[in-house]
Amino acid sequence: MPMTSRRKPQWIRGRLPSASAVSQMNRQTLARSLHTVCLHARCPNRGECAQKGNATFLILGDLCTRNCAFCAVAHGHPGALDPDEPKRVAEAVKSLNVVHAVITSVTRDDLPDGGASVFAATIAAVRGLVPHATVEVLVPDFRGCGRALETVVHAAPEVIGHNLETVPRLYGILRGGADYAVSLALLRNAKRLDPRIITKSGIMLGIGETREELRRVIGDLARIRCDVLTLGQYLQPTPDHHPVVRYLGLEEFHDLREIATREGIPQVVAGPMVRSSYHARDVLDELLSKAGRDGLR
């Protein structure tokens, strides 16, 4: 890839948040002792999403058992599970008038099933209280446990996402405790367990990967029939995290979208501020519209 300046370009800008929207989102979640990725991962799009009434709920607590070099979520030794958390997530979905609920979690390597049963319970709670809402889950790798993945698949969310995050060469630097083959297998097996489920993955850019490495990862995702791929610029959340190696130009995002589309991935979203759950409902609607016209693979 051509190198660009490490100085942040003008197109890397989050929209100024609506104070009232952010306050409402915080009230609804904090009042129920809930966590969101928007806040804990310092998402640059949180202002825009709050204004639209969108949020990505973070379950299984707010402490991750891993310490990825790119992630702002705190790590440490998590406490006990909260049995009422699924119910409170569903109540927040209802009170915020969410039509597409996105649910993710910290990684819980301390739990036998990695928290899969809590994902299933949360999906069921949302279905019971807000039956018109669609559900998207962004799951950890469950350390490759097939039974844990089956638990989530059987709960029947519309979308199962798992982010590859980066290219295999950088896993040891950026994703301690993770394994590229395990992550790829999770996405492949989710589709095998239920071909109707939409699978989704995301990759950060500008963190040290090469164009050829990205091509190979995109090809891997296409071969396992991944339905949605998001490509966004990595932004260093704090000075203690892995630095940005470079900022991609806008034309590079367009080129990578074209490459992934030619490889056969049905829905590709690429841009500097794109994140895995950014405009998630719109992405799902567009994919389903394409499926209605052309059918999914």
Description:
With 297 residues, the chain is an alpha/beta fold. The protein is 39% helix and 13% strand. The protein has helices at residues 19-30, 37-40, 46-51, 85-95, 116-129, 146-154, 171-174, 180-193, 211-223, 250-263, 280-294; strands spanning 35-36, 56-59, 100-105, 134-138, 159-161, 198-205, 228-233, 267-271. The protein has an eight-stranded mixed beta sheet, with helices on both faces. Strand 3, helix 5 and strand 4 (134-138) form a beta-alpha-beta unit. Helix 4 (85-95) packs parallel to helix 5 (116-129), helix 5 runs parallel beside helix 6 and helix 6 (146-154) packs across helix 8 (180-193). The longest helix has 15 residues, at 280-294. Mean pLDDT is 86; it is low at 38-42.
**What is the alpha-carbon Rg in Å?**
18 Å
What is the β-strand count?
A: 8
Please give the share of residues in helix: 25-40%
Number of helices: 11
Given as residue ranges, the uncertain stretches (5+ residues, pLDDT < 50) are 38-42
Structural class, by secondary structure, is alpha/beta
- Main sheet summary: 8 strands, mixed
Quote the average pLDDT: 86
So what's the oligomer here?
A: single chain
Quote the distance from N terminus to C terminus: 30 Å
Strand-and-helix sequence, N→C? HEHHEHEHEHEHHEHEHEH
Name the overall outline.
globular
Please give the order of strands in the largest beta sheet.
1-2-3-4-5-6-7-8
Portion in beta strands: 5-15%
